């Protein structure tokens, strides 16, 4: 019951592809809603904690496939930290690809193996349909949970301003930065202001994004240091009339098409263009589903599992709520 046993167990699954034994195990324990190729990032965390004797510490004695639910449990137990301050080996780190720290928007989860040089090193299940090691930056981290590992004494949550070796605040990104806005949001604002060539809105604070922020700071008439700190935020809001301008745009590439006005359901099995649109979106999210325009039993099964993942009514019907939820950021 320790950090080392948790990480050692996760390392045994590196290279695991899908479908796999973790999904089968989770279905056996939690029922038919998981009888298909469902996203298994949090199921992986659950299995590793179960096998390593850390089930109570990591999962509070219950199974999790829904990342938002797991993060909420950490928060309810007083073991949740919203940004990257204090993050360390053994923590359970949660990601939002949209760059926010909104718990309800969490998309993915991983196990921290180390923190060094401004980067978080992880092992993650269901990343590119595999279990792999990953290297992450603050720009995608919504927060982390601190399990109460028992080896070496009780591990307490980090102090409010703990040092982690990972520089920056919230989702600022780069080493040594004090950014107060998510990297993807910075990229959108810089692009909207007319920067050329346009930045790739990928949430990564690389040299091109830093150059774009410097350019925008020049447009604002403030110090051009490439760090979107409080001064840049204030100048941006002033330019936008005090309302933040494009500070809360719709998440790129995730805005749902207009609701087609009729449910996707069966029987009878029906073919439609809106079904094809929905199937294509679910395939983008990583679900194994044919994009054939036919809403049949396999599509319904994917729908039920997706609804279970998102905490929606598990009726297998793509109605307005399920349709909109399908265009939130995908789990990868």
UniProtKB/TrEMBL annotation:
Domain Peptidase C51, first and last residues per copy: 35-126
Entries under Pfam families matching the protein: CHAP, PG_binding_1
Sections of the chain in a coiled coil: none
| Classification via InterPro entries | CHAP_dom, Papain-like_cys_pep_sf, Peptidoglycan-bd-like, PGBD-like_sf, PGBDSf
Where is region (Disordered) located?
A: 150-180, 222-276
Composition-biased stretches, type Gly residues, lie in 167-176
Locate the Peptidoglycan binding-like domain: which residues?
A: 187-235, 274-325
Q: What is the protein name for this chain?
A: Peptidoglycan-binding protein
Origin species, per record, is Streptomonospora algeriensis
């Amino acid at each position: 019951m320790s950090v080392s046993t948790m990480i050692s167990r996760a390392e045994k699954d590196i290279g695991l592809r899908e479908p796999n034994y973790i999904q089968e195990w989770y279905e056996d324990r939690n029922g038919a809603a998981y009888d298909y190729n469902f996203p298994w990032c949090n199921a992986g965390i659950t299995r590793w904690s179960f096998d390593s004797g850390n089930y109570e510490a990591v999962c509070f004695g219950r199974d999790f496939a829904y990342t938002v639910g797991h993060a909420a449990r950490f928060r309810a137990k007083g073991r949740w930290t919203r940004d990257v301050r204090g993050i360390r080996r053994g923590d359970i780190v949660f990601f939002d690809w949209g760059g926010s720290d909104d718990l309800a928007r969490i998309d993915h989860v991983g196990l921290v193996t180390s923190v060094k040089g401004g980067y978080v090193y992880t092992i993650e299940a269901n990343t590119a349909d595999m279990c792999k090691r990953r290297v992450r930056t603050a720009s995608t981290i919504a927060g982390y949970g601190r399990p109460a590992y028992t080896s070496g004494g009780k591990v307490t949550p980090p102090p409010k301003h703990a040092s982690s070796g990972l520089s920056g605040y919230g989702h600022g990104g780069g080493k040594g930065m004090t950014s107060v806005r998510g990297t993807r949001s910075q990229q959108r604002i810089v692009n909207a202001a007319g920067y050329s060539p346009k930045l790739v809105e990928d949430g990564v604070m690389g040299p091109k994004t830093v150059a774009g922020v410097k350019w925008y700071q020049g447009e604002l008439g403030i110090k051009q240091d490439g760090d979107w700190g409080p001064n840049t935020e204030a100048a941006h809001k002033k330019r936008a009339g005090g309302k933040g301008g494009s500070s809360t745009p719709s998440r790129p590439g995730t805005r749902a098409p207009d609701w087609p006005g009729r449910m996707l359901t069966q029987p009878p099995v029906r073919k439609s263009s809106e079904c094809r649109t929905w199937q294509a979106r679910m395939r983008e999210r990583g679900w194994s589903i044919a994009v054939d325009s036919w809403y049949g039993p396999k599509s319904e099964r994917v729908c039920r599992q997706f609804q279970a993942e998102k905490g929606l009514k598990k009726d297998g019907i793509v109605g307005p709520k399920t349709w909109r939820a399908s265009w939130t950021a995908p789990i990868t």
